[in-house]
Design brief:
Layout lengths: L2 H8 L5 H6 L14 E11 L2 E10 L3 E5 L9 E6 L2 E12 L2 E6 L5 H9 L16
Antiparallel strand pairs: 1-2, 1-4, 2-3, 3-6, 4-5, 5-6
Length: about 130
C-alpha cells in the first residue's frame, strides 16, 4: 500500500490541493476541532491596512471568514473580533468572498466563548476572557 492510498483509506486530513489530487475533494473532510457557528463582526489585516469582515464559524484552530474584499486580504493577517485580538492567522483557502483561516496559536476556551457570546453581552460574565482593548 502506498502512502497516498494509506492516507485515503485512513481518511487522514490533508492539505486542500493534495485532497483534490487524491480524488477526495467531494468527500467531507474530518475536522479536528469543533466548529461554533457565529455571526461576529471582525477586522482582518496587517499594519495600517484593515478590512471589515464577519466570522461565520470559529474553532480553536481556525475560522470561516466572510469579507467583501477577500481577494485583497494578505496571506498572513491579524484578526480582531468581540473587542479582542485573536492573534495572527494564515489564509488556507479563498472562495469568492469567503476565507478559511488557521490561527497561529490555538484559541483558548474563554476566548472562544467571548467570540460566541459577545453579541448578547454575556461575555462580561466570563472572568477569564482576555481584557478588552
Amino acid at each position: 500500500m502506498s502512502l497516498s492510498s494509506a492516507k485515503r483509506d485512513a481518511k487522514v486530513p490533508v492539505a486542500t490541493g493534495e485532497y483534490r489530487r487524491q480524488g477526495l475533494a467531494d468527500e467531507p473532510r474530518p475536522r479536528r476541532e469543533k466548529r461554533r457557528k457565529v455571526f461576529q463582526p471582525a477586522r482582518i489585516g496587517s499594519g495600517s491596512e484593515w478590512l471589515r469582515a464577519h466570522l461565520l464559524d470559529i474553532s480553536s484552530a481556525g475560522a470561516l471568514v466572510y469579507c467583501e474584499e477577500a481577494q485583497a486580504a494578505p496571506a498572513r493577517l491579524l484578526v480582531e473580533a468581540a473587542e479582542c485580538d485573536l492573534g495572527h492567522a494564515t489564509i488556507v483557502w479563498r472562495r469568492g468572498n469567503r476565507l478559511g483561516i488557521r490561527f497561529e496559536r490555538p484559541l483558548d476556551e474563554p476566548t472562544l466563548q467571548r467570540v460566541e457570546l459577545y453579541p448578547d453581552g454575556i461575555c462580561a460574565q466570563l472572568g477569564d476572557a482576555p481584557p478588552l482593548r
